[in-house]
Amino acid sequence: MKANEIRKGMVFQLDGKNILVKHVQVQSPSSRSGSTLYKVRGQDLVSRQKFERSFKGDEMVEPVDMTRSAVQMLYRDGDGCTFMDIKSYEQYTLSDEALEDELDFLSDGLEGITALVADGAVLAIELPATVALEITDCAPGMKAASSSARTKPATLATGLIVQVPEYLTPGEVIKVNSETREFISRA
User: Fold this and answer.
1) What was the pLDDT predicted at 34?
2) How far apart are CA 118 and CA 128, in angstroms?
3) Domain termination site, one of 91, 109, 126
4) What Å distances lie between residue 113 and 23, 70, 142, 179, CA to CA?
């Protein structure tokens, strides 16, 4: 597979490592002789180390054969988070370390999650693009605040802190972009 075919969520093998692609940025050439670069950010699925590298469009990478399964988060305990395959009802547990980037968005019963499965083992999960979370703590809402006014920090049910408009109050449920970690709207 050529590097210009790499997309978010794919897994490819490079130097004996399986890399989960989390972000692809295309950099067009600034001169006629330059070639388009594909800046890939991701994570090694085994060591959990961050991966970042630029590829030329015609460089070859080896895709890894994976299946995707829709899963729902059941619960979190001392061992990590347990997910259930929506079709087969199989349960998988991933450690907190394996879910480091996703923990701020995971809550019991969360749906829309995709598990990446290879050889019967879940290697990683992908979150839905937006996640609804409840505000547990923030400064009191201001009745006169407009929607385009200043923001304030709010702590959500999972511990994630995001900037929200001043008019929001604790107890309200908001939508958060799971990639940029930014407030989108009320849920």
Assistant:
1) 72
2) 20
3) 126
4) 18, 6, 35, 14
As a whole number of angstroms, the distance between CA 119 and CA 128 comes to 24
User: Model confidence over 72-108: pLDDT tens digits?
Assistant: 999 989 889 999 999 999 998 888 888 888 899 998 8
| Cα 85 from Cα 100, distance rounded (Å) | 21
Mean pLDDT over 46-57 rounds to 87
64 vs 131: CA distance, rounded Å: 28
> Final residue of a domain: which of 29, 63, 97?
63
Per-residue pLDDT, 113: 94
- Which helix (H) or strand (E) segment holds residue 42: the answer is strand 37-44
**Are residues 92 and 105 located together in one domain of the fold?**
yes
Residues 119 and 141 in one domain: no
- Mark whether 114 and 95 lie in a shared domain: yes
Contact 63, 3 (CB under 8 A): no
104: domain range?
67-126
Which pLDDT tens digit goes with each residue over 140-153? 877 665 555 688 99
Is the CA virtual torsion 133, 74, 113, 42 positive or negative?
positive
Domain count, the chain: 3
CATH code assigned at 30? 2.30.30.30
